[in-house]
Amino acid sequence: MSAQADRLAAKSLALVKRYGQQATLTRPGPGAYDVATAKVVASTAAYPVQVLVQAESGQDKEGDSLTDGGTTRADRRKVLVAAGGLPVVPEPGDTVGPLEGRTWRVLRTDPPTQLGGTPILFNLRVSA
Questions:
Q1: pLDDT digit string (tens) for 38-96?
Q2: 76 forms bridges with which residues in the sheet?
Q3: Contact (CB, 8 A) for 26 and 45
Q4: Which residue of 26, 68, 69, 111 has the fewest C-beta atoms within 10 A of its own C-beta?
Q5: Which domain holds residue 80?
Q6: Within 10 A of 73 (CB to CB), how many other CB atoms are there?
Q7: pTM higher than 0.85, yes or no?
């Protein structure tokens, strides 16, 4: 990235840290077979993240409404996740939380906000 893009990326991450909140991004793993119990033990990987939570707009990318009876579903949010230092790219099936006292499941990821081809913010659509 250019020097200007580096400064903008650093500033945006500082703002997310200042005005956002801490959470944990959790990714389910494939699990491992436990010979002693003869069962597959689920495994997860957890990553600390800085996030900003926004209300769901009620529209998906194609413009189809996500509303029931004219009101936006209360259990959906848009979460902006700071990409700096995050070793993985969030994907559907991951969870993020606690936010607003709940753990949220990632339904889909919108294209990330980028500068010079480097992700700055991951845009997640989540549901409780």
A1: 888 888 899 999 999 987 765 555 444 444 454 455 688 999 998 888 899 999 999 99
A2: 127
A3: yes
A4: 69
A5: 3-66+73-127
A6: 13
A7: no
The CATH number for 14's domain is 2.40.10.270
Domains in the chain, number: 1
Three-state secondary structure of 83-127: CCCCCCCCCCCCEEEEECCEEEEEEEEEEEEEECCEEEEEEEEEE
Bridge partners of 99?
102
Instruction: Output the pLDDT for position 37.
Output: 86
pLDDT for 55 equals: 78
